[in-house]
Amino acid sequence: MSGVFLSFEGIDGAGKTTQVAFLAKALERRGHKVTWLREPGGTLLGEKIRSLLLEKTDEAPVPMAELLLFAAARSQLVTNRIRPALKRGEVVILDRFADATFAYQGYGRGVPLEQILSIEALSAGIQPKRTWLLDLTPAESARRRQERGGASDRMESEADSFRAKVRSGYLERAKTFPDRIRILDASASVDSIATQILTEALELI
Ligand code: T5A
Fold it and tell me: pTM value?
């Protein structure tokens, strides 16, 4: 596979989507072919699974069902979109990938980490070359989401204490993969974060 696989992580509202768009456009302006995808989603099946996972209903998925649904969407995305784009030599940018499952379902929901890692091996089987972890406090995340307005989805409706556990899961994961995961202060300005990411991305590509 000759392309470059990059990903963004962080708790809800950390600024991932903003930074993915900045990076994708900056790379395209420099002549790179970029495939930009979100998780869960990015395929027909993945977008349907996304709706199942994020809609609020009377029967929320139990943690194992939630884990398996995220994994099913990822498996479809890796096979149908990520691997083919990398094979074509493109830059592939993911708005969340397997680190999100480790943090949300592992630390947030409390699914045993060995089960998370087994499912990750089955459903992902590939790792980004670089992951930018946009680190933000749950309080600032809540403030930003409130400022943005609109309805909260099922995951966003979780308490700040849930996001605090997710955040610590991400920080633990970064300790396991110090060469791949770069922790960035997500409370810095959009432009300063984008500049730092673009500089690193251009070095990697
Ligand atoms: N999930 C996902 C799991 O539980 N397990 C998994 O395996 C996976 C893959 C997916 C949900 O599913 C969960 C995690 C999520 O809860 P999502 O849509 O990907 O949902 O995730 P969200 O994080 O909820 O998406 P958001 O759009 O809310 O957050 P972003 O993308 O991090 O933030 P963004 O860029 O939209 O910015 C949020 C607001 O902040 C402002 C923006 O303008 C915007 O208003 N902002 C800044 N303000 C100040 N300074 C900055 N530096 C800013 N950057 C952005």
Answer: 0.97
